[in-house]
Amino acid sequence: MEATRLCPYCLQPLPDGAQSCPHCGKSFAGRNPGGTLPVGTVLAGRYTVGEMLSIDGEGILYRGAENLGRFRVTIKEYLPITLTAERTVGSVLRPKTGSEVLFKTTRMDFADLYHSIQRITPANGLEAVLDVVETNNTVYAVLENPGGTPLDQWLENHPGPIRPDDACAMLQPVFEGVAAMHKIGLVHRGICPENIRVMENGRCRLAGYATVGLRTAGSGLHEQLYEGYSAPEQYSTAQFEGRYTDEYSLAAVFYRMVCGQAPVPAAQRVVADSNPRAKSVNGSLPLYVSQVLQLGLRLRPMERIQTVPQLYQALSSKEYTAELTRTMKPETPVRTAPPEPERKEHLLSLKALLAGILILLSILILLTLWGILGRKNESASSAVEPEPASSEVMVPQNLVPNFIGMDYTQVQNNREYTSMYLFYVTEEYSDTAPAGQIIQQQPDADTVLKAGETIRLVVSKGPQMVEIPNIIGFTQDGAVKELEARGLVASCFMVVNDGSYASGCVVRTSEEPGTRVEVGTVITVYIAADPSVQITVTPEEPAATEPTTEPETPPAAGAADPAVDTD
């Protein structure tokens, strides 16, 4: 059954065909500009379109109402202004002549994006996608109305730097939401204070989804980039974008919060990097936080922090920052243009060089003509065989790229690399680098290397994992030795024994045998006590790590848990 159309202003039912609301008195005519959907339009028999909120190179954002549940929504219509010719009387979009293919492919990208986000929302930290409607030769994404205040407005009302711990707490849901997007292969590309909302509880949520075309310069759409927050690679279609692109933007947002000012725009930094370190802007900032932001805002994608979880953990832990810094290569300096006087001197010297070359060429031409005239007077028999050309072949030499921080598949699948060099790859476990990331290379970046020579790469295997052994029935000493041999830490507890178990032997463990865990994980081992000894904890519940009352006498011999009753 079709839902009753609602007034998008007061959410009250509307009479059929009504162009104004009898409840709030709002008239719908002329509310939206020409070329947009009129207020009161119904989509899929379920959503009523309200006033236009904004427009970008990809589409139009409207207020809206969900007619069945009677709640407010936001509706994003795919309408690329550079590719769309007109909207018919029936609201059907028509692409411009010659843009039909690009219109169709970007429309498919738009639908795929919002379908993918719909599958992972509502997720903590992300504005939820409620529905995706395909009609009128276009696509409509129906999103929740999250409320809250845009972070840029919130920061204006809270002047001055935010404490790093407070910024971490506020942005934690956003970090988690972006990590969830990355897990399914999506990159946001538009993370900035404008697209982050601060909710009533002080926690933030991320909105502002868009296809790659809108957030990349020169894509064919009227791009939407955010000065100070968009990563350098977004300013060129020739550069790849990935998780590290969102990492740069999140680091820039954090920089804005703790420094009170945005970073220098990336396009400007590429020419001359004058972005100040966070510590120099806010002297009270912990040094390690400033170091993390410096790593997160590196201009070269492969040299910066690669993942959002790494960035968040580094911002939250001084110890993790030290370990991460140790595994990352030093930043390659950005080559900047020479000062103006230096450029003038360079031009003058270049002119002098060109003049000298012209004089030399004139002399060579005269000598050549003189030689030709002289050879005419020589007999053919006196001709001298020319010396054979040198057999030496110039072997091309190249500067080794910086592979550290790249995913090995990016090297393995890049013919530019594989056709130039041979690669010898080994793997090592790493607690800081995700599996597949290159953590070492030999020779170092920018070393001169002949084509065809070998580069040695060390690729992370991620954290070392180990299988929990079956130690049920082992003695306590045997169980501890078995776990320690696998790099696990045993924490033993005595549990009550009614005679069903062998005294001093393992009853169960906190992890099932066969489960794979990281090396260094603490495994709780439950040991059956002697039946004559009273235990305050049953096998079904773990013993307390500290006794509730202090025993008057030491625990019985062999007991590993202070909860043993020795009376």
Explain the layout of strands and helices:
Elements lengths: L41 E2 L3 E9 L3 E8 L4 E8 L5 E4 L5 E3 L4 H21 L8 E7 L2 E7 L4 E2 H7 L6 H20 L12 E3 L5 E3 L36 H17 L6 H6 L6 H4 L5 H10 L11 H9 L1 H10 L12 H36 L21 E3 L8 H5 L2 H4 L3 E7 L9 E5 L5 E3 L3 E7 L4 E3 L8 H10 L3 E7 L10 E4 L6 E3 L3 E7 L5 E2 L28 E2 L2
Parallel strand pairs: 13-16, 18-21
Antiparallel strand pairs: 1-2, 2-3, 3-4, 4-8, 5-6, 7-8, 9-10, 10-11, 12-15, 14-16, 17-20, 19-21, 22-23
Number of helices: 13
Proportion of residues in helical segments: 25-40%
Q: Let me know the average pLDDT.
A: 83
Q: What is the gyration radius calculated from CA atoms?
A: 34 Å
- What coarse outline follows from CA principal-axis ratios? flat
User: How many E-type strands?
Assistant: 23
State the major sheet: 6 strands, antiparallel
Indicate the low-confidence ranges by residue numbers.
336-343, 379-396, 537-567
Instruction: Report the structural category.
Output: alpha+beta
Spatial ordering of strands, largest sheet: 1-2-3-4-8-7
- From the N-terminal CA to the C-terminal CA, the straight-line distance is 74 Å
Proportion of residues in extended strands: 15-25%
